[in-house]
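Regression test attached.
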Amino acid sequence: MDALEQLAARSGRTFPNLFEARRLTERRLGEMKERLAGLAVDPDVGVALFGSWGRHELTPHSDDDWAILVAGAERSEVRPSPVAVEKAIGREESKPGAQGIFGASVFCDHLVERIGLDADDNRNLTRRILLLLESVPVANGSVHAECRKRVMAGYLDESVKDYRPPRFFLNDLIRYWRTICVDFVGKEREEEGQRWALRNLKLGASRKVLFAGGLLPILLCHRYKAADIGPFLDAVLSRPSIDRLAWAFLELEAVDAGVRAIGAYDRFLRMLADPGVRAELTRLPRREAQNSPLFVEGSRLGDELEQGLLALLFETPLEPLVREYGIF
Amino acid sequence: MVGNRGDWPVLVEEATRLSSFAVELAALGGEELPALVEFLAGEPPLPFRYLSVHGPSKGRHVSEAELVATLARLPGFVDAIVLHPDRIEDPTAYVPLGGRLVIENMDSRKATGRTADELEGLFAHLPEAGFCFDVAHACTVDATMAAAADLLDCFVDRLRHVHVSSISSDHGHVPLSAGDEELFAPLLSRCRDVPWILEAAPR
């Protein structure tokens, strides 16, 4: 029984939308693997899906954010090519976003060797963090596992201490979260507020689950000796984000708050799965948002999720760790 | 604050002195509601992160449909609209309030809405509604606090905020006593993630 199921069993709640999204993800992952099975693939190359696929929270309108992972040396020709993957996947309406983060080849060397400084651009940072926090393999899974292992090793160097959260990894995760928040405004200005409401709600809910799904395991590394931190993180981060949250609420005896936080997220997922709601939120400009019952409700659910997470961080034994590691 | 009832700017100023985090603006008399709605419609600058409006618990001079229409006009920055279950005649009339509607448990003087069993039927009609846990009300119903624990168990995923106080012998809300603080602590510790509204000045 996974942590979400345990939380549901402890509280007598069902989280129907999360479990439905999991079933849909499993089904669609099987289909996706079949579509990609016929592609010629180099031995050091794999294909992975990111975002809601990695969170196991697929809704009918989720994007197919895929990337070709290359564990070996950088080169100009990689099999499969982006064109071949795009053709195999099809689904024109769900193509990756236009920022170029996905829908391309990603060299593991870049993710591992370019941490910090100018070469670690927004794309590289996003790909690295999402590879660890919300990705799932769909072709040649061993490459995905190898890349994750190498990226993790890049964080867990000799600076890691017994019974301390790994600060280098923590700092990069916090940097990523703040980058998302700053880029939200950047995108708003660049695109003159298009899709502001939907993006705002996702920032307050799905992106927060992503961040907390990394933050909590990293803080809980304080329970382990340095040698055990890698295996612990590898095991925990292989679970979907919401499972990591459910696990943390159970571990820290904050079951009531966990039920409310995850219950709110469950209802938010129901909103995202509704095509009418999604269309309205996509259309809604910022100046009208506070007059939209849908936006107000989505915003309220995001607040409920945040309240639960804040209680977990500040009203449990995690509080001294957040104080010591979360600010400076 | 009782002396300033209806003077919303002054009440807000008084509340801010205590906390800028959460506030409940209570229009307990039906005649107080229009002025509160008008005050909030003007979008006054407010410091609160969580703003609840307590709807009328007496003196409703309009139909339920009219009351709901008025409450539904409250601006989007109002997080919760608290109502007493014993004042609700037709639950379905309140569906338009959606997730902002919050139902409070009642004290022992009321005929209904006191226990989880009595509230369950109401919530069945209002799937999106939240729950306001009035810990002192629950204590008047069952001094062992078993009924209070039952409320938190049954409505764990609906809990939105908590009312904190003690109850005097004439059933008024008074500052939380040291004895009640100890008695309520195990239950309040289950509510650390939601705002607490003090229904009487702190000791």
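Expected vs. actual: identical. The mean pLDDT of chain A is 96.
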